[in-house]
């Protein structure tokens, strides 16, 4: 794989600037976040530190605000209040310098566009091509420099999708689309991967393959943050768990978080908007 030392070096550099109070390096830091879509806030008083270099799983019921949190972290939704730092930077800047690879939830994607699997994966490399600059950045993906095409093909091979490179993305099955999107996230070579339900609708064999790929990325020093409703998977794979329901219910070691009591508390958490939220709705 092309998961380069450059990205890991960047991450280490940022770790020095982003150590938490107990000295553990932090990839994502959120303080008093308020977020929503215009009506009453969806998230309120969200504060958390995501440890770097770990497999972190966000668990919470439907509508808890998990995808909303990811949209904030990736910088495509502006917070209504609070502060977010990604590897010591704002989400927009972290994304602009290629620090974040994001895989949106399946339901958020319009698949009906005529583009091949390989071109979707290649699009993860556009930031790097632009960074190099020159006339090559205007090339269509099929004529992009060999290193970028190779990175896309390597990522497709890692998720066993090499045979589908030229297929239209909309003509794939649900599980195949997930694997293509995961390949896109991997091809980006980012130190932080935000994956919104990467395992939903995926068969057991593909799930095992995806988790193997994610463990490898984690072992290379990347921070993987994913959302899942699959508690068996979370119990097996997560290093750190965040329980979320409109606010952070608890966050910590997976064995302490994934108890029946903690999960019940997360599922039934009453919605108590903070003073910031009340201020924002203005009602
Ligand atoms: N674009 C949007 N506009 C308005 N409201 C939205 C939008 N997206 C999400 N919401 C609302 O925000 C709340 C949280 O949604 P979000 O998608 O973050 O939940 P989730 O935890 O990811 O749920 P799921 O497990 O179903 O994916 C829900 O009440 C939802 O209706
Ligand atoms: Mg969601």
SSE order in H/E notation?
HEEEHEHEHHHHEHEHEEHHH
Oligomer classification: single chain
Largest sheet: number of strands, sense, barrel closure: 6 strands, mixed
Can you identify the CATH superfamily of the largest domain?
Answer: P-loop containing nucleotide triphosphate hydrolases
| DSSP summary, beta strand count | 9
Total number of domains: 2
Q: For the residues shown, what is the average pLDDT?
A: 84
User: Structural class of the helix and strand makeup?
Assistant: alpha/beta
Distance from N terminus to C terminus (CA atoms, Å) equals 53 Å
Dominant shape: globular
Q: What is the C-alpha radius of gyration, as a whole number of Å?
A: 19 Å
Q: What fraction of residues sit in β-strands?
A: 15-25%
CATH topology of the largest domain: Rossmann fold
Task: Provide the spatial order of strands within the biggest beta sheet.
Answer: 5-6-7-3-8-9
Q: Would you kindly provide a written description of the structure presented here, covering whatever features stand out?
A:
The protein has 12 helices and 9 strands. With 283 residues, it is α/β, with parallel strands linked by helices. α6 (146-158) packs across α7 (174-187). The protein starts with a helix and ends with a helix. Residues 1-17 and 277-283 have low confidence and may be disordered. Adenosine-5'-triphosphate (ATP) binds at residues 37, 42, 60, 62-68, 105.
């Amino acid at each position: 794989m092309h998961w380069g030392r450059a990205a890991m070096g960047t991450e280490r550099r940022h770790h020095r600037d982003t150590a938490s109070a107990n000295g553990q390096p932090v990839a994502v830091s959120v303080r008093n976040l308020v977020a929503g879509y215009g009506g009453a806030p969806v998230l309120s008083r969200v504060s958390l530190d995501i440890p770097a270099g770990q497999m972190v799983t966000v668990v919470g019921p439907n509508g808890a605000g998990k995808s909303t949190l990811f949209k904030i972290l990736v910088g495509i939704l502006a917070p209504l209040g609070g502060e977010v730092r990604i590897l010591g930077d704002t989400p927009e800047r972290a994304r602009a310098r290629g620090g974040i690879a994001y895989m949106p939830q399946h339901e958020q994607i319009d698949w009906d566009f005529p583009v091949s699997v390989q071109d979707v994966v290649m699009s993860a490399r556009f930031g790097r091509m632009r960074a190099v600059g020159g006339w090559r950045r205007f090339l269509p993906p099929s004529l992009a420099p060999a290193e970028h095409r190779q990175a896309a093909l390597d990522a497709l091979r890692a998720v066993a999708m090499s045979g589908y490179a030229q297929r239209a993305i909309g003509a794939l099955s649900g599980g195949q689309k997930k694997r293509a999107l995961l390949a896109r996230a991997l091809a980006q070579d980012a130190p932080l991967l935000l994956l919104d339900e990467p395992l939903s609708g995926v068969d057991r064999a593909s799930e095992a393959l995806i988790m193997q790929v994610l463990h490898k990325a984690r072992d290379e020093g990347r921070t993987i943050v994913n959302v899942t409703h699959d508690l068996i998977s979370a119990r097996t794979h997560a290093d750190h768990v965040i329980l979320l329901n409109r606010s952070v219910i608890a966050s910590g070691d997976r064995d302490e978080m994934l108890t029946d009591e903690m999960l019940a508390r997360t599922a039934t958490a009453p919605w108590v908007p903070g003073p910031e939220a009340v201020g924002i709705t203005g009602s």
